Amino acid sequence: MHKTKLEPRNQDTKNFARRVRALRDVLGLTQKEMGHRLGRTGEYAQNLIFRLEAGAFRQIDCQILTRLARLALEHNVSVQWLILGSGPVYNQPGEQ
Length: 96
Fold this sequence. Notes:
The protein has 96 residues and is mainly α. The protein has helices spanning 11-27, 31-37, 42-54, 62-74, 79-84. The protein has one domain (11-84): 434 Repressor (Amino-terminal Domain) (Orthogonal Bundle).
């Protein structure tokens, strides 16, 4: 079977992938641990994060985005920064 190299679809996807990796690094989680935090189990947990960090996705379902946003907020990381790449990385005290 021929393996295809996983490549980000465009620059926005590549930048989002970097921010997902940065969030995981801030949290000190492995890919598998972060996948579990996003509701995946078994081999799907690590595979989800691997694909997100590689930018190898066409779309992300709403449930995963919601869980990513909650995970970010739990650690004072700006959802605006995580999803859109704009604004400061961390929320100011009292912001959501």
